[in-house]
Amino acid sequence: MKNIFTVFLLVLCSLTFSNCKKKKPQPDLPPITTTGENTFGCYIDGEPYAIFEGTPNPWKLTWTKFTNYSTDSMLFIITSHENPRWSFHITIKNFGQLGSFDSKNFPYQSAFTGYKNGGTMPTHSNLYETKQDHFLTVEIIKAIPNRHYAGTFSGEMINGDGKVIQITDGRFDIKK
Prior knowledge:
The protein contains one helix and eleven strands; from the N terminus they run αβββββββββββ. It is mainly β.
């Protein structure tokens, strides 16, 4: 009887523990891809900001928008997130195909708006923009005009109060 109980206990334990699988944590940023995953991400002062359109999303995005527009040698990418609320856009003039570009000069600068304190409008303290001395460098690694763009970016932006933020490890893979 003792042997039957021991065998039963071993079978029960093995069935119980065989169903326990450790879940892999979601990374802070989506991987750098060129396959049209509709993803965007970067670190801003070390804090991750990301949109995982093509993968399961633990942040429960309520609204995302990906737009790319290329005309007259200009690339315009918009990403928006609702919870927490933020938006990021990258605009590059004199855009060619593949290669490195910057977003220095108005009206083609890029911007980040964070609404941490519940605001709904950009203000001088929550709107960060690129300027002549604070800009993004964007590396386009895939370009199919008006259809698919993938790349990486990094740099800095400044707000109306003179606060500078650092943008690192940026990546996007956006396909219409």
